[in-house]
Amino acid sequence: MKKIFALLVLAGIANAVTAADIVGNAKAATAKVEMCIGCHGIPGYKATFPEVFQVPMIGGQPAKYIENALQAYKKGDRKHPSMKGIATSLSDQDIADVAAYYSQQAKPN
Amino acid sequence: MKKTYAILLFSVVSFSASAAGNISKGKVLAEKYNCATCHGKDYGTPIDPSYPKLAGQHRDYLEHALTAYKRGDAPNGRNNAIMTGQVKPLTNQDIKDLAAYFHSLPTTLVTHR
User: Fold this and answer.
1) Interface contact B52-A65, CB threshold 8 A
2) What structural domains does chain A harbor?
3) For the structural domain made of B2-104, what CATH number should be given?
4) What pTM did the predictor assign?
5) Which residues of chain A have a CB within 8 Å of the CB of B77?
6) DSSP symbols for B62-74
7) Residues of A in contact with B54 (CB under 8 A)
8) How confident is the model at residue B44 (pLDDT cuts 50, 70, 90)?
């Protein structure tokens, strides 16, 4: 029984470590955002499915929000064919890096 | 004939107003549904970094996002613990009005590479 507890505790720690390990690095995102800028970097760029709409401005959104959104596309909680394709190609570290990159964009003063 | 023109003009104006959403109606709806509780008092300073800034976001994107939450767990829908409940009472016109209002607010969001 004690052993099981020890294992559970260890497993808990291992989980915590994995989660804490992923820290977004905006500098590491430079190559990873290549596939974002084709739509999100072009002012007025429109998606045509399922409605015609301008793709959202993501520069300046909080990193955690961007991360959650990408994870939701990956997991299927947000069902959007093109964003699912993009998000599934990204690792958790890639997602954190991309989120850090866009959250640091700001309006020029 | 003049009357017909006037009527036509009027209907065009009112039609385009409804297609674009009504900013002041959107403001009332945003207050009614307490959007600021999460998205921040100016809708551009969310109370937690897991929530998006809405102020100044593209009108048509906001409509798309709210519509997607309304679709829920269906093709082109979105599942979200909070937003799924929030959009339930909204009509399509409410969504347009809210989107018009949030879009009209000053933004810190940007589009660049």
Assistant:
1) yes
2) 22-103 (1.10.760.10)
3) 1.10.760.10
4) 0.84
5) 79
6) HHHHHHHHHH-SS
7) none
8) very high
